Amino acid sequence: MHIKEYNIHVFGTETVTPWMMRESCELIRQVVACLKNPTDREKFSGHQAFLITNADPDLSLARGRKGQRGTGGKGFSVFNEALVCTTAVSTLYPDQPPQYRGWNVPVHELGHSVENTLDLKDRSDDVFKKNVPNYNPEKRREYFAWATEEWFGCARRGRGAMSKWKYEYLATIFSEENKWIPNCNPRP
Q: What are the domain boundaries of the chain?
C-alpha cells in the first residue's frame, strides 16, 4: 500500500491480514501527520513499513535478536500483527506471561523510526539522562520509543499523565493540538 501524501510504502507478507494493512497505514499516516514541523514530515518520504506475523521469519538474519519481529530505524519500520490488539506473548521474551497489547508495539517501533529519521538521538540522550531516575545507558534507545507510546496513549499512562519535562520534550516534536490515538477496537 502507498500513503501518497507522505510517499510512504507499506508492505505485508501473505500472512498479514487486510485489517492490519489498513490500520497500520492509518497509524503511520497519523503519527507522521502529528509531527510538528513540516520538514520533519517530509523526511519520511520513502519510508518503508514491513508488516509480518509469527509465521514469518524473525529478524535474527538481519542483525536482530532471536525472536525479534519488530524494529524501527531511519527509513523503515517492522510491525508484527501477532502483537496488535490482542493478548499475546512477546516473541522476544517467550517465558513471560501473555499480556494484552493494543497498538503499543507498532507505535514503539515507529517511535524508533521518528528518533532515527529526525536525528534526535543525541538530544534524547541529553534529555532522558538528565531527567530519568536510574537512567540505564544500555536502554538509551528505548526511552524515546517508550515516551512515544505515552504520547499516543498506548502506555498505561497517557499523554495527560506524562511528567512535565517529558511532555515538553515530545511537544517540540509532536503537535499538542493533534489528539489522535490509535483505535483498538476488537480485531475482525
A: 2-170
